[in-house]
């Protein structure tokens, strides 16, 4: 019997995931401010568009996802991330300091800043990746763990391809077709890291939080393997296999989204839940993004696919998850400190009242609506960016309120 | 041949259904119905805890020698759930919608992450460690369930 299965009580202190989650909204806010300037609406590969993308992917999503994984792995897989406090702090410092420099380097096309930021981020992610890989190797092989393994395996590929692109921009080397490198970097990052991680997490947390029937086990098994193989093919040199890989990713993600919508439809609880609304928006956007990606076509729909995937799918899910994870962990850690005598303690809706959560959702959806239209009507970039910044500000306020309430009841980090 | 994972996992699903029925009755502010349904849920949870704490956990601890490990943590979370359920019963008595819903949201998170740990980790470990005596223990669990139902 594996003794590693005994370790699920070893979730990290609240301060570890909270540190990631409290800082992440700053990057969403910065992305909103940058999105107010319409330059990004013209070109998928404009320096500002690339900078904006990395503020969202590395800054906001990266921080929340790395922070949440330290908490998820002990619960889902029964294994702690070894040295979670330290590898967490190092990765946190890597993304918190490296992402602004990287985004500035992209916006200003300052290759020295790009090299420094890229190297710093790659270096500081290494301990986290090694610890995460070790934990996942020890975890019990359920489909969620298989999906997480793929996601964590995709991350070094994304980083290495990114470093290769920085080297190309600096003129240190000349790949035959740098755009192919860029495409692989994007596919490994968006489908491999973000897509796989959200999907694998959803298999556990959607039935858990919404009291829905479980995902069909045959589907989760087929998706874990199918997307893994598709991703590997999609990263190959141009060939029929690569095209099959692209199609497999698109079809797999659409299947995941459709089944998620069906599972949510069969939810047993009748109470309104803002997280449910975030998941529904996310799945609809994921389907739309994949259809736009699969049909290919000109630049503008591709830009729209990017907005729908990142903001509509990934950021929506992240908002929804933060609204559950932070209030629950705050309550749970306070309870544990009192050895289970929790009478009189604030409960989840005290940490995040429904009204505050709903305001955050409305701002997010409004920003999504405007920014989805901005590639066609650049004037929408200004209100869309402002609304995105406002949604990030409200998210930050909600998280800080929860952290302060936790502290005022004697909670430590 | 059934396993602890299936038997107790199915009982989790049964408890989830009773939880939802009680919460849905509160959502409709149908307080009398809510009180009855909450009682059913509370009884089912206590029965489930008894099956684990009186039968499965002691057998697992005796077989593996792991007394301060996962079963210790699970017992602690049972206590936390019972504490929340006491507060929910008080909220029902006061017909306090907001308090019940906030407690119920908290209990749901605690209960579901607890179940996830049991179903993903502890029960499969118990199935492995207690393979030789599993059928006898399952018969005891089934007897306990029916005795307490009666």
Explain what this protein looks like in three dimensions.
The complex is a heterodimer of chains A (413) and B (150). Chain A has a single domain (3-408), classed as Cytochrome C Oxidase, Chain A. Chain A has 413 residues and is an all-alpha fold. Chain A has helices at residues 15-35, 47-76, 84-108, 111-138, 143-169, 178-210, 217-234, 240-265, 274-295, 299-337, 348-351, 354-373, 381-408. Chain B has 5 helices and no strands. Chain B has helices spanning 4-27, 31-64, 70-94, 97-129, 134-149. The longest helix of chain B is centred in the N-terminal third of the chain and has 34 residues, at 31-64. The A-B interface holds A 1, 5-6, 8-9, 75-78, 140, 142, 204, 208-209, 211, 268-271, 324, 328, 331-332, 335-336, 340-343, 347-350 and B 16-17, 19-20, 23-24, 27-28, 64, 66, 69-70, 73, 76, 79-80, 83-84, 86-87, 98, 101-103, 105-106, 108-110, 112-113, 115-117, 120-122, 124-125, 128-129.
SSE order and pairing:
The complex is a heterodimer of chains A (413) and B (150).
Chain A: H1 15-35, H2 47-76, H3 84-108, H4 111-138, H5 143-169, H6 178-210, H7 217-234, H8 240-265, H9 274-295, H10 299-337, H11 348-351, H12 354-373, H13 381-408
Helix pairs in contact in A: 1-2, 1-3, 1-13, 2-3, 2-6, 2-10, 3-4, 4-5, 5-6, 5-7, 6-7, 6-8, 6-10, 7-8, 8-9, 9-10, 9-12, 10-12, 10-13, 12-13
Chain B: H1 4-27, H2 31-64, H3 70-94, H4 97-129, H5 134-149
Helix pairs in contact in B: 1-2, 1-4, 2-3, 2-5, 3-4
């Amino acid at each position: 019997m594996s003794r590693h299965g005994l370790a699920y009580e070893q979730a990290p202190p609240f301060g570890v995931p909270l540190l990631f989650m409290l800082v992440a909204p700053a990057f969403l806010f910065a992305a909103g401010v940058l999105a107010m300037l319409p330059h990004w609406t013209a070109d998928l590969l404009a320096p500002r568009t690339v900078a904006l993308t990395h503020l969202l992917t590395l800054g906001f999503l990266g921080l929340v996802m790395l922070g949440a994984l330290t908490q998820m792995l002990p619960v889902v897989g029964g294994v702690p991330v070894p040295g979670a406090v330290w590898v967490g702090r190092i990765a946190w410092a890597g993304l918190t300091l490296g992402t602004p420099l990287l985004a500035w380097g992209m916006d200003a096309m300052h290759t020295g800043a790009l090299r420094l930021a890229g190297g710093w981020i790659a270096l500081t992610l290494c301990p986290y990746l090694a610890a995460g890989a070790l934990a996942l190797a020890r975890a019990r092989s359920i489909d969620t763990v298989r999906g997480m393994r793929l996601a964590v395996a995709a991350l070094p590929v994304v980083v290495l391809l990114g470093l290769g692109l920085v080297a190309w921009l600096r003129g240190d080397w000349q790949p035959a077709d740098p755009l192919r490198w860029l495409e692989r970097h994007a596919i490994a990052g968006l489908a491999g890291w973000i897509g796989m991680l959200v999907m694998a997490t959803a298999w556990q947390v959607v039935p858990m939080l919404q009291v829905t029937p479980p995902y069909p086990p045959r589907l989760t098994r087929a998706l874990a393997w199918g997307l893994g193989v598709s991703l590997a093919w999609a990263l190959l040199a141009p060939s029929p296999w690569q095209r099959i890989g692209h199609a497999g990713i698109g079809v797999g993600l659409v299947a995941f989204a459709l089944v998620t919508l069906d599972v949510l439809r069969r939810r047993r609880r009748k109470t309104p839940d803002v997280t449910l609304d975030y998941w529904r928006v996310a799945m609809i956007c994921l389907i739309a993004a994949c259809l736009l990606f699969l049909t290919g076509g000109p630049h503008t729909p591709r830009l729209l696919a990017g907005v729908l995937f990142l903001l509509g799918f990934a950021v929506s899910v992240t908002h929804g998850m933060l609204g559950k994870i932070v209030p629950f962990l705050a309550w749970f850690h306070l309870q544990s400190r009192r050895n289970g005598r929790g009478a009189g303690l604030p409960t989840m809706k005290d940490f995040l009242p429904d009204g505050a959560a709903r305001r955050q959702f409305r701002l997010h959806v409004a920003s999504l609506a405007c920014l989805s239209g901005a590639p066609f009507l650049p004037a929408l970039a200004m209100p869309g960016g402002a609304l995105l910044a406002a949604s990030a500000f409200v998210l930050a306020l909600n998280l800080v309120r929860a952290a302060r309430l936790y502290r005022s009841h004697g909670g430590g980090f | 041949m059934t396993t602890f994972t299936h038997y107790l996992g199915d009982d989790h699903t049964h408890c989830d259904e009773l939880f939802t029925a009680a919460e849905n009755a509160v959502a409709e502010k149908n307080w009398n119905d809510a009180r009855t349904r909450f009682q059913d849920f509370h009884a089912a949870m206590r029965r489930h805890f008894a099956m684990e704490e009186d039968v499965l956990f002691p057998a697992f601890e005796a077989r593996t020698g792991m007394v301060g490990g996962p079963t210790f943590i699970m017992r602690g979370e049972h206590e936390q759930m019972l504490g929340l359920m006491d507060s929910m019963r008080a909220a029902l008595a006061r017909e306090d919608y907001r308090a019940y819903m906030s407690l119920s949201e908290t209990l749901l998170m605690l209960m579901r992450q607890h179940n996830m740990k049991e179903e993903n980790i502890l029960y499969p470990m118990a199935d492995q460690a207690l393979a030789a005596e599993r059928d006898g223990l399952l018969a005891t669990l089934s007897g306990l369930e029916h005795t307490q139902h009666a």
